[in-house]
Amino acid sequence: MVDYKNPSLVVETASLEPGDITWRSPSNLAIIKYWGKHGKQLPKNPSLSLTLSSAFTDTKVEYRPKETGDPAISLEFFFHQEPNEAFKERVVKFLESVTDIFPFLKQLHLTIHSGNSFPHSSGIASSASAMSALALCLCSLEDRFFNTLEDDEEFDRKASYVARLGSGSACRSIYPVAALWGEFSEVPGSSDLFAVPMQEQVHEVFHSFHDDILIVSSEPKAVSSRVGHELMDTHPFAEARYADARRRLHFLLEAMKKGDLETFGTIAENEALTLHGLMMSSNPSYLLMKPGTISVIERIREFRKETGHPVYFSLDAGPNVHVLYPEEIIYEVRPFIEEQLLPFCEDNQWLQDWVGDGPVEL
Ligand code: PMV
To answer: Beta partners for 38?
Structure first.
């Protein structure tokens, strides 16, 4: 059992020079969804995601030794250059929860500047990119102070573990191309505690796959993912869902290895609708899709039928539609999106995204 608690990670404040660390980390799109958790951010089923590129968060952590011995987290937080109390509160809570992993956090005053590549109100969930960027900064801080994470694999694993504690899905953003989170007997080394890289296990067609995100609505979600996960605890279909996610994961891994786009796309769409089906059949029931979401889905299916092109959709916990397709049909799909799908988007907003190389230190 991995346990990163380490009381010896304390710094010599008298000799510590102020400094800063910046990471850019992308969002990710789950093909097999994580929905339902237990314990300390542990998933009820394994999930598999594609790592994105153009939807990312930049996070800069500036640090200096505290002048007092007060162990409380000392933080100033800026989002797009503006102080942001709501985000600050969430980050303070998160930092408090990891002080047994990074005890030096109690000794520092931190100023964090964070910003997303996508408009804040675009309806794109940013917790995966934001929490992974922050986790990477914390691991870099540890390595800078103690040289304890020089091994890249160990660094990534710890960053993934820490990111998970901030937001479950964030643990998958650490790796390029694709990542799997959750123990799954067919994937050696897989764990509920951190994600593992899957780049080598997927066909190269997925290394350049597109995921254009259509912003059907940028309204804040009526029901948060936190509440959605909680509702799974009493959901009548929960156990069947967890078993089905595992069953599908087996077929998805096989399809992604071979580059079988039809099976991949069929599973991706089914997972998206299952996620929303679980929301609709929760008690209380809720609906995050909008009429535009359904229209876009129908158009994508019609386009696929008419042209035979392997274009599929996915959804996150919101009304926006992810359009998934291989690089080789970009010149057919982009005009289709612009002409037929953008009319259903709020202010014609969309984000052109694709599978990416994972986080970078800036
Ligand atoms: O990471 P959370 O707690 O925000 O949950 C995210 C859940 C989904 O995005 C709906 C699915 C997933 O696996 O990313």
So the answer is: 42
* C-alpha closest to that of 303 among 314, 311, 294: 311
Residue 118, by phi and psi: left (phi above 0), alpha (psi -120 to 50) or beta?
Answer: beta
Q: Which residue is closest in CA terms to ligand 1's atom 10?
A: 317
- Strand 74-79 and strand 108-116: the pairing is parallel
Instruction: Please give the distance, rounded to the nearest whole angstrom, from the Cα atom of residue 49 to the centre of ligand 1.
Output: 10
Site to probe by mutation for ligand 1, drawn from 28, 31, 34 as the one with most ligand atoms within 8 Å of Cβ, is: 34
Q: Say what the pLDDT of residue 190 is.
A: 98
The token duo for 121 is 């109100």
Query: Do 351 and 341 form a contact (C-beta atoms < 8 A)?
Result: no
Distance CA 77, CA 85 (A): 8
Average pLDDT over residues 116-121: 82
Tens of pLDDT, residues 229-250: 999 999 999 999 999 999 999 9
Instruction: Using alpha carbons, list the distances in angstroms from residue 189 to 154, 172, 198, 256.
Output: 13, 14, 11, 19
Beta strands in 70-176 (DSSP E): 74-79, 82-83, 108-116
Encoded amino acid at 325, one letter: Y
Is 48:32 a contact under the CB 8 Å cutoff? yes
Q: What are 315-324's pLDDT values in tens digits?
A: 999 999 999 9
pLDDT exceeds cutoff 90 at 131: yes
